Amino acid sequence: MASQKFFDYFLLHVVFNTYKNLFSHSKEHEQPGQNNVVDDESTLGILEKALLRTIQDIDSEFTQAHTVLLVFIDFLTFPSDFQINFCMQEALKNEYISGSTAIVVLWMNGQILVGNLGDSKALVCSRKTHFDQENEGDLVTTLQAKELTMDHHPDRDDEKARIEAAGGVVLVVGVPRVNGILAVSRSIGDIRLKRYGVFAEPEVTGWRRLSIEDWYVVIGSDGIFERMSPQDVCDILHDNKDKIDSSSSLADCIVHNAFRKGSGDNLSVIVIPLRQESPPSLEHNQQI
């Protein structure tokens, strides 16, 4: 449901905040004959705010919190404790108790912004040229991984502090889990654990300008990285980029490698080529 709702909510918030920005600008700086415009810096801020609001709205709908109505009435109004408790009871009554991680990459004018909650990852594979000392000093080119996200695991110091402050505990059941149940500390839904510090606030990287050395952006679910590191993923892309021509085959290679290495979790990955030397289309594969 979250992916289906994302674009609707996101577009709503982009349009609303754009008009809000224009209206505020016209009131403060209006001069005869002057056109009101939204510059690039303002647009980046609008997109970031829209992303945060969109995740909140999806979580609200997923847990039947009904705060969408409040958003239309007053964008500065937040639900009271009574409203939250009432909506939680409604969600539990309707058995809306599951949850989901979320990761979003926005790309505009050569810059990207990543919003993440849970344990999916986003990374950039960047070209690095160096001398190979083990092979007679030959000049070699590799792809180096740079992670753009940090996993929200319950044993991370700041996440654990929030959980414990809310009355929850972090227990190791195979892996660290909130109250011995949930292996992530932020998620959409998971209504039973919201009172114990699990919430749907994404961690945002801030806008990052892509360089000419950045070749791929990769977004993957936790199953991809269960048996492989981010560097393993970039190595797969480097080793296979000249061997295949299918629009989805680079993503296929990553999924197949994760499966062969024994990953038993959801295997979903998106590969976005950034350079002309790479296939121009967005590559995607998923295996459950």
Automatic annotation (TrEMBL):
Question: Which biological process annotations from GO are given for this protein?
Answer: regulation of intracellular signal transduction
Which GO molecular-function terms appear in the entry? protein serine/threonine phosphatase activity
The record, for Pfam families, names: PP2C
Q: Domain (PPM-type phosphatase): give its ranges.
A: 1-274
Source species, domain of life: Eukaryota
Query: Mind telling me which PANTHER family this protein's record contains?
Result: PROTEIN PHOSPHATASE (PTHR47992)
What name does UniProt use for this protein? PPM-type phosphatase domain-containing protein
Natural source organism: Solanum lycopersicum (Tomato)
Classification from the root reads: Eukaryota, Viridiplantae, Streptophyta, Embryophyta, Tracheophyta
